[in-house]
Write a structure and sequence with these properties.
CATH class of the largest domain in chain A: Alpha Beta
Shape of chain A: globular
Structural class of chain A: alpha+beta
Number of helices of chain A: 9
Order of helices and strands of chain A: HHHEEHHEEEHHHEEEH
Largest interface: A-B, 58 and 58 residues
Distance between the termini of chain A: 27 Å
CATH superfamily of the largest domain in chain A: GAF domain
Oligomer: homodimer
Number of strands of chain A: 8
Number of domains of chain A: 2
Protein name (chains A, B): IclR family transcriptional regulator
Largest sheet of chain A: 6 strands, antiparallel
Radius of gyration of chain A: 20 Å
CATH architecture of the largest domain in chain A: 2-Layer Sandwich
Strand content of chain A: 15-25%
């Protein structure tokens, strides 16, 4: 599997796929080489092979993008899709009633990875993106995972450094410990202005059939006195998704 | 890039990813070897490397699944996501009003590939799946692409063979030609019982800012006399998505 230069083809191919982001969805081969640190010739050869397999596609202007075939292979059998499928009817209901943003996240490493987001036109500011990530200490979804996660995860995150996005972001271990205890006790995370001053996140745990927290359901609404009424909506929907997962017998091993 | 046995690592890795389907999302390594025709030792080595890169993940029971990291890489910069994002508010509106199924498909090779599907509990039967495919001649979305696609695509599909899913499925070149002319003339495809006797598909073209058909928006409803009222809803939403794409300046090069 190893190449003469010591790095496997798959490892290089992964670096190439990682070069594409939501802000940079189309790249010239020279830009791919720059971002990955690969020689242009090597990048060019690998891009050609990735295009042949449909992992990448080439535009009319020779720019390269993620291929729809890669999306198809990654999605059709993904545990993320089955979890999202179970959650979607509940998310649509919440979105009809609350508006703004409704989102579903899973724990991946030390981040929340967002599987789905429903947004209304004119909704409050929200940094969440589908297939995007947020850190655990600052996002309502992340705090749900921290509150219910392993002691090892909690200690790793709490030692920091934890980025302060606003003056409200909890960053000190003592404040985070108190917050996590509160989230465990009350059953949801309530986060006014933690990621952006104008936005407020409310998240509740979605449990798999083994009782573990499989996902977090969250709404992002304006940071004002009306947000409190959303809490029971989010909690009810998260419990509904948990029951739907139990019926399917799939906890979504994401 | 070539291995001693003549097939590249990426080609073998692709075969492994292709072994996973919605019906078989979790596979033992021996099953992967069987499905791909790779030696068990080769499959095992490649699976280990794919797991290390997050393309695959291993369950507690040693079964292998598509990894959430692969989904993330394939999704976050995918043109499929930006097209889906533009369409989603319109699709939610249609789904609120019509119920059943609302879906968004793109042309990929000689199939429709479905990027998104919203479904209501108790909706009519529908073979569409997210990241699933349907043939062009039988599905309302596919017929929209055939009607507006290249002459080369049309001739390739019309020579057949075209599978008859029901007695209503159009399969003869003469019937298909008449149907495609009608779709071009009236601006939508109306397909009672083509894929399943009980279901009726209605699809309209979503155009990119260069005027080409970038996607097809479709609803699947019960095959009865009430379906006609849905036509203007689908057409209006498809035009709305086309305008939203023009504003974004992204035709979704999918």
């Amino acid at each position: 599997m190893k190449q003469p230069h010591g790095e496997s083809v798959l490892s290089r191919a992964t670096r190439i796929l990682e070069a594409f982001t939501q802000d940079a969805p189309a790249l010239a081969v020279s830009e791919i080489a720059r971002r990955t640190g690969l020689h242009v010739a090597t990048a060019s050869r690998l891009v050609t092979e990735l295009v042949a397999h449909g992992f990448l596609s080439r535009d009319d202007d020779r720019k390269v993008r993620i291929g729809v075939r890669l999306w198809e292979l990654a999605t059709r059998a993904s545990p993320a899709l089955s979890l999202r499928d179970a959650a979607m009817p509940f998310m649509e209901g919440v979105h009809d009633v609350v508006g703004h943003h409704v989102q579903l996240g899973v724990l991946d490493g030390d981040d929340v990875l967002f599987l789905e987001r429903l947004s209304a036109p004119g909704a409050v500011v929200n940094y969440t993106r589908i297939a995007g990530r947020l850190p655990l200490h600052a996002s309502s979804s992340g705090l749900v995972f921290l509150a219910h996660g392993s002691a090892e995860l909690r200690e790793r995150i709490l030692v920091g450094p934890c980025t302060a996005y606003t003056s409200r972001t909890p960053v000190s271990p003592s404040r985070l410990r108190a917050l996590l205890a509160e989230i465990r006790q009350q059953g949801y995370a309530y986060c006014p202005g933690y990621v952006h001053e104008d936005a407020l996140g409310i998240a509740a745990p979605v449990r798999g059939d083994d009782g573990s927290v499989a996902a977090a359901l969250a709404v992002i609404v304006p940071n004002d006195e009306h947000a409190h009424v959303v809490v029971p909506v989010v909690r009810t929907a998260a419990l509904g998704i948990s029951r739907a997962l139990a019926v399917r017998g799939s906890t979504g091993h994401v």
